[in-house]
Amino acid sequence: MTSSPPRPGRDSRVARLPPRERILDAAEELFLSEGIRAVGVQAIAERAKTTKMALYRHFATKDALIEEWLRIVAAGYVAALDQVENEHAGDGRAQVLGVARFFAEGLPEVARRGCPFVNSVAGLPDPAHPARRLIAEHKARQRARLAAMCERAGAREPDELSAEITFLLEGAQISAQNGSVDRAGDRLVAAVTAVLDRGAESPAG
Predict the structure, then answer these.
(1) Percent of the chain having pLDDT more than 70?
(2) In the chain, how long is the greatest CA-to-CA distance?
(3) Whose CB among 140, 168, 176, 177 lies 3.0–4.6 Å from 107's, allowing a Cys bridge?
(4) CA distances (Å), 18 to each of 8, 15, 45, 56, 180, in order?
(5) Angle subtended by helix axes 92-113 and 62-87, to nearest 10
(6) For 39, left (φ over 0), alpha (ψ -120 to 50), or beta?
(7) pTM of the complete model
Protein backbone atom coordinates (compact mmCIF):
# COMPACT_ATOMS: atom_id res chain seq x y z
CA MET A 1 0.00 0.00 0.00
CA THR A 2 1.35 3.43 -0.92
CA SER A 3 0.87 6.08 1.73
CA SER A 4 0.05 9.66 0.91
CA PRO A 5 2.81 12.28 1.25
CA PRO A 6 3.23 13.55 4.81
CA ARG A 7 2.19 17.07 5.74
CA PRO A 8 4.96 19.71 5.43
CA GLY A 9 7.13 19.65 8.52
CA ARG A 10 5.38 16.56 9.82
CA ASP A 11 8.53 14.54 10.54
CA SER A 12 10.04 17.15 12.85
CA ARG A 13 6.69 17.90 14.49
CA VAL A 14 5.74 14.29 15.12
CA ALA A 15 9.20 13.32 16.33
CA ARG A 16 8.61 15.49 19.40
CA LEU A 17 5.34 13.76 20.31
CA PRO A 18 5.06 10.95 22.89
CA PRO A 19 4.55 7.48 21.32
CA ARG A 20 0.79 7.36 21.90
CA GLU A 21 0.25 10.74 20.24
CA ARG A 22 2.53 9.76 17.34
CA ILE A 23 0.37 6.71 16.74
CA LEU A 24 -2.84 8.76 16.81
CA ASP A 25 -1.35 11.34 14.45
CA ALA A 26 -0.25 8.63 12.04
CA ALA A 27 -3.64 6.95 12.21
CA GLU A 28 -5.38 10.23 11.38
CA GLU A 29 -3.10 10.84 8.40
CA LEU A 30 -3.73 7.40 6.97
CA PHE A 31 -7.42 7.06 7.85
CA LEU A 32 -8.22 10.34 6.12
CA SER A 33 -6.02 9.80 3.08
CA GLU A 34 -6.64 6.11 2.45
CA GLY A 35 -9.72 5.09 4.43
CA ILE A 36 -10.20 3.13 7.61
CA ARG A 37 -10.67 -0.21 5.88
CA ALA A 38 -7.60 0.09 3.67
CA VAL A 39 -5.16 1.00 6.42
CA GLY A 40 -3.49 -1.74 8.41
CA VAL A 41 -1.82 -1.61 11.79
CA GLN A 42 1.61 -2.17 10.24
CA ALA A 43 1.24 0.92 8.04
CA ILE A 44 0.20 3.01 11.05
CA ALA A 45 3.17 1.77 13.07
CA GLU A 46 5.57 2.58 10.23
CA ARG A 47 4.13 6.08 9.77
CA ALA A 48 4.43 6.64 13.54
CA LYS A 49 8.05 5.36 13.44
CA THR A 50 7.29 2.63 15.94
CA THR A 51 6.43 -1.08 15.93
CA LYS A 52 3.19 -3.05 15.89
CA MET A 53 4.07 -4.38 19.35
CA ALA A 54 4.45 -0.84 20.68
CA LEU A 55 1.19 0.21 19.04
CA TYR A 56 -0.66 -2.67 20.69
CA ARG A 57 0.69 -1.59 24.08
CA HIS A 58 -1.30 1.62 23.70
CA PHE A 59 -4.29 0.31 21.72
CA ALA A 60 -5.43 -3.28 22.14
CA THR A 61 -6.99 -3.39 18.66
CA LYS A 62 -7.28 -1.32 15.52
CA ASP A 63 -10.92 -0.70 16.46
CA ALA A 64 -9.81 0.77 19.79
CA LEU A 65 -7.46 3.09 17.93
CA ILE A 66 -10.24 4.19 15.57
CA GLU A 67 -12.56 4.86 18.50
CA GLU A 68 -9.97 6.92 20.38
CA TRP A 69 -9.15 8.98 17.30
CA LEU A 70 -12.82 9.79 16.74
CA ARG A 71 -13.24 10.63 20.43
CA ILE A 72 -10.50 13.24 20.02
CA VAL A 73 -12.14 14.60 16.85
CA ALA A 74 -15.49 14.87 18.66
CA ALA A 75 -13.82 16.62 21.60
CA GLY A 76 -12.57 19.29 19.21
CA TYR A 77 -16.13 20.03 18.12
CA VAL A 78 -17.31 20.10 21.73
CA ALA A 79 -14.57 22.57 22.62
CA ALA A 80 -15.52 24.79 19.67
CA LEU A 81 -19.17 24.87 20.76
CA ASP A 82 -18.08 25.60 24.32
CA GLN A 83 -16.10 28.57 23.06
CA VAL A 84 -19.01 29.87 21.00
CA GLU A 85 -21.38 29.61 23.96
CA ASN A 86 -18.91 31.36 26.26
CA GLU A 87 -18.20 34.16 23.79
CA HIS A 88 -21.93 34.84 23.27
CA ALA A 89 -23.33 33.96 26.68
CA GLY A 90 -27.12 34.09 26.67
CA ASP A 91 -27.34 35.21 23.01
CA GLY A 92 -28.73 32.18 21.22
CA ARG A 93 -28.78 33.76 17.78
CA ALA A 94 -25.11 34.76 18.01
CA GLN A 95 -24.29 31.28 19.29
CA VAL A 96 -25.97 29.52 16.35
CA LEU A 97 -24.28 31.84 13.87
CA GLY A 98 -20.98 31.25 15.66
CA VAL A 99 -21.43 27.52 15.15
CA ALA A 100 -22.22 28.11 11.47
CA ARG A 101 -19.08 30.20 11.07
CA PHE A 102 -17.00 27.54 12.83
CA PHE A 103 -18.24 24.91 10.37
CA ALA A 104 -17.75 27.31 7.44
CA GLU A 105 -14.15 28.01 8.44
CA GLY A 106 -13.46 24.28 8.56
CA LEU A 107 -14.76 23.56 5.06
CA PRO A 108 -11.42 24.07 3.24
CA GLU A 109 -9.90 21.34 5.44
CA VAL A 110 -12.90 19.10 4.81
CA ALA A 111 -12.50 19.69 1.08
CA ARG A 112 -8.85 18.67 1.31
CA ARG A 113 -9.08 15.67 3.63
CA GLY A 114 -12.76 14.81 4.00
CA CYS A 115 -14.95 14.79 7.09
CA PRO A 116 -13.62 12.29 9.66
CA PHE A 117 -17.13 11.26 10.69
CA VAL A 118 -18.45 10.79 7.15
CA ASN A 119 -15.35 8.87 6.11
CA SER A 120 -15.53 6.69 9.19
CA VAL A 121 -19.19 5.81 8.76
CA ALA A 122 -18.45 4.79 5.18
CA GLY A 123 -15.64 2.55 6.39
CA LEU A 124 -17.56 1.02 9.29
CA PRO A 125 -20.77 -0.51 7.89
CA ASP A 126 -21.76 -2.18 11.18
CA PRO A 127 -23.96 0.32 13.09
CA ALA A 128 -23.13 -1.52 16.32
CA HIS A 129 -19.41 -0.78 15.98
CA PRO A 130 -18.24 1.22 19.05
CA ALA A 131 -16.90 3.99 16.83
CA ARG A 132 -20.24 4.25 15.01
CA ARG A 133 -22.01 4.52 18.37
CA LEU A 134 -19.55 7.20 19.44
CA ILE A 135 -20.34 9.23 16.31
CA ALA A 136 -24.11 8.84 16.81
CA GLU A 137 -23.88 9.93 20.44
CA HIS A 138 -21.69 12.90 19.55
CA LYS A 139 -24.11 14.03 16.84
CA ALA A 140 -27.09 13.66 19.19
CA ARG A 141 -25.40 15.80 21.87
CA GLN A 142 -24.44 18.41 19.27
CA ARG A 143 -28.02 18.52 18.00
CA ALA A 144 -29.31 18.98 21.56
CA ARG A 145 -26.92 21.87 22.10
CA LEU A 146 -28.07 23.50 18.87
CA ALA A 147 -31.69 23.10 19.97
CA ALA A 148 -30.89 24.88 23.25
CA MET A 149 -29.22 27.70 21.32
CA CYS A 150 -32.24 27.95 19.02
CA GLU A 151 -34.52 28.16 22.04
CA ARG A 152 -32.42 31.01 23.44
CA ALA A 153 -32.68 32.64 20.01
CA GLY A 154 -36.47 32.72 20.34
CA ALA A 155 -37.32 29.87 17.98
CA ARG A 156 -40.94 28.73 18.01
CA GLU A 157 -39.87 25.11 17.48
CA PRO A 158 -36.23 24.85 18.56
CA ASP A 159 -35.93 21.12 17.99
CA GLU A 160 -37.21 21.37 14.43
CA LEU A 161 -35.02 24.38 13.78
CA SER A 162 -31.96 22.54 15.10
CA ALA A 163 -32.73 19.67 12.73
CA GLU A 164 -32.87 22.05 9.78
CA ILE A 165 -29.61 23.71 10.79
CA THR A 166 -27.99 20.30 11.25
CA PHE A 167 -28.99 19.43 7.68
CA LEU A 168 -27.27 22.60 6.52
CA LEU A 169 -24.10 22.00 8.55
CA GLU A 170 -23.79 18.39 7.45
CA GLY A 171 -24.74 19.15 3.86
CA ALA A 172 -22.14 21.90 3.61
CA GLN A 173 -19.44 19.47 4.68
CA ILE A 174 -20.51 16.91 2.08
CA SER A 175 -20.68 19.61 -0.60
CA ALA A 176 -17.20 20.82 0.32
CA GLN A 177 -15.88 17.27 0.26
CA ASN A 178 -17.24 16.46 -3.19
CA GLY A 179 -16.86 19.97 -4.63
CA SER A 180 -20.48 20.23 -5.73
CA VAL A 181 -21.12 23.79 -4.48
CA ASP A 182 -18.86 26.81 -4.74
CA ARG A 183 -18.52 29.33 -1.89
CA ALA A 184 -19.91 26.69 0.45
CA GLY A 185 -18.87 28.57 3.59
CA ASP A 186 -20.58 31.83 2.60
CA ARG A 187 -23.67 29.96 1.49
CA LEU A 188 -23.79 28.01 4.75
CA VAL A 189 -23.73 31.10 6.97
CA ALA A 190 -26.32 32.83 4.78
CA ALA A 191 -28.61 29.78 4.85
CA VAL A 192 -28.38 29.39 8.64
CA THR A 193 -29.12 33.09 9.05
CA ALA A 194 -32.23 32.73 6.88
CA VAL A 195 -33.41 29.70 8.82
CA LEU A 196 -32.97 31.58 12.11
CA ASP A 197 -34.90 34.58 10.77
CA ARG A 198 -37.77 32.35 9.64
CA GLY A 199 -37.85 30.31 12.81
CA ALA A 200 -37.72 33.13 15.33
CA GLU A 201 -40.84 34.29 17.05
CA SER A 202 -42.40 37.48 15.77
CA PRO A 203 -41.94 40.47 18.10
CA ALA A 204 -44.87 41.19 20.36
CA GLY A 205 -47.19 43.87 19.15
Answers:
(1) 90
(2) 70
(3) 176
(4) 20, 8, 14, 15, 39
(5) 140
(6) beta
(7) 0.85
